[in-house]
Structures are given as structure tokens and as C-alpha cells.
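User: Can you predict the 3D structure for this chain?
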Amino acid sequence: MERYLKEPNPLLDENGHLIEPGYTTSMIYDYDKNKVNAGLFALKEWDFYQFYLGDYILQVTIGHVSYVANFSATIFSLTSGEQYRFSRLKPFPLLKMNMPATPDEPAIITERGKDYEFSFITHSDSRFIGVKAFDKKIGDIDIELNIASPKENEKMVIATPFKQKNQFYLNCKENFFNVEGKIRFGKKKWTPTASTTAVLDWGRGVWPFRHEWFWGSGSANLAEDQFGFNLGWGFGDLSHATENMFFWNGKAVKLGAMIVDRDPQNYMAPWTFTDTTGKFHMQMTPVYDNFTQTKFGFVNNKCHQVFGEFNGFVILPTGEKIKINNLLAFCEHAVNQW
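Assistant: Here is the predicted structure, written as C-alpha cells:
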């Protein structure tokens, strides 16, 4: 079930079919969007960043679904629900946006409009995110964040097939543990601290119009150690590999299928996660459901992004049991048509 790939290889063949489904811990896939064999508006590409700032969560996105691009920056409180959001849509961006073919290749992406500028810059061992914008209700928005991204840190990389051979999903999730910079939305300001962590969700693919997924992620600096995890299920054919991993001081530990005990009628009830290999056991006590819905035309996306305190343990490859206490993280359930 867990097909681990070691050697670099092309992602798609000449017919646009996924060649080697499976997982790895670095981006060894050669993604060539010119080989995509699907409808004109089928390809989706995005970079999504999320930052933990104590009581507040910052999310910054750049991406497109072929027929429209989205640039957004949102910050919200997990206790009060206070939220500030800036977003802009750009029609028919596919031929204009040059999204990087890998998550860590040196690249500069800049998107400008009359009242905004988004910058995403990737270096060999760091990243920069910049947002400068003006909103009539919020005021000036100014974000400058530098993220340490050591080359040796392992990631969750997966290539997932679907029933139709020309559909695929190439995804990389990377946890970050060192963030510096500044954040301003109008009169409100935030400064990253030593406890600030982040995650990148980097995705490229073609998949069914209607779909759903579950995704959970968290990371923290624990004394002298760095811990993070990634959980995922429900999206595509996972018979070749799952998205389930945890990270300890930059090294990935692969997990098997996840047994999840939750109340599907109540997102704020406790969730329990148990890995079939016995290396991961956590209970999430929810504190905030960041529910979002995007609906226009034929697009209808709903997501319950549930944040909570995770308590439990993981087992290191050495056999050592590490207890995790009150780790703020999330697990989301998305049901989409787009």
C-alpha cells in the first residue's frame, strides 16, 4: 500500500497519464504542465501558506483553476472570530501565470493590480512572502515574511491517481519552524515569535469536478526538538500510498492508514486519530471551526477547517515514545465542486 519512490522520474507520460503513483520525501517528480491532457480549464495549481501566530492564524494563497486566479491574505482569531480578509480574482490566468514546477525551485512570482501586489520568492534554503494592498474597510495591508526552509528537511510528497487516467494530483506539504517578519492589517499588527510555525500546501493537478478530502497538519518547536505531522484521506486513489506522516527534527516517519473516530454531525466534538502501524495516536479537542463557503456560478466549495488542541504520542524509529501535549493544529473536511 505504501509505494515509496527513490529515483527521479517524469510525472506524466506523453498521453498525460500518471506514470508512477506513490509517495516520497522530496520533490523528485518532473512536472511538465505541457503534458497535461485534459480540458482547457481543468488544470489547477496553487501555493497555500498557513502561519500560527498564537491566537491568530494567517493564510496567504496564490493559485488558479485555469479559468480564474485567486490572490488572498486572511488573518483570524481562534477565540473571538475576529477576521480580516483581502482577496482579488483574475480571469483566465492560465497563459499568464508561471507557477513553479516544483515547490523548492528558485522562483519569483509577482502579481500586481491597481490596489495590490503579491510576491512569492523561493531561494535554495528560504522563502519570502510579501503582500502590499489597500482595502477600503481594512486600510493598508503590509505583510513581509521570511521563512527558513533548510534543504535537508523532508516533506510529504505524493502523486495520486484517479479513475480517469488523465487525472492526477501532485502534492507537497512542508512544515516550517522559523518565521520572521511583520504583518499588518489596517491598525492591527502582528510579529512572528519563536513559537511561530507554518505549513505550505503546494498542489498541481487535474481531478473530478466534484470531490472531497480530509487534511490535518500541525507543527511545533518542542524544547530542542521540532515536531510536525501531516494527515490526509478521502481524495483520489490512495491504494498506492497515503499522505500520513510525522516529522521529527526534519526527518519523515511514514504512517499507514489512519483510523479516525469523529462525530460526522458535530465538527466540534473530539476527534481521535490512530495510525494502523501504532506510531501515531492523537485526540483533537476542537476550539474553533473556520467554516468557509465559496459559491458563484457552478462553483460550490465548503470547508470546515477545525482547529483544536492535539494530545497523544508518536513512536520514533528508535522506539522512543514522545508525548505531545496541547499542540494547536487542525483537521479540515472539504466538499467541493470546482
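The chain has a mean pLDDT of 95. The first strand starts at residue 9 and ends at 10.
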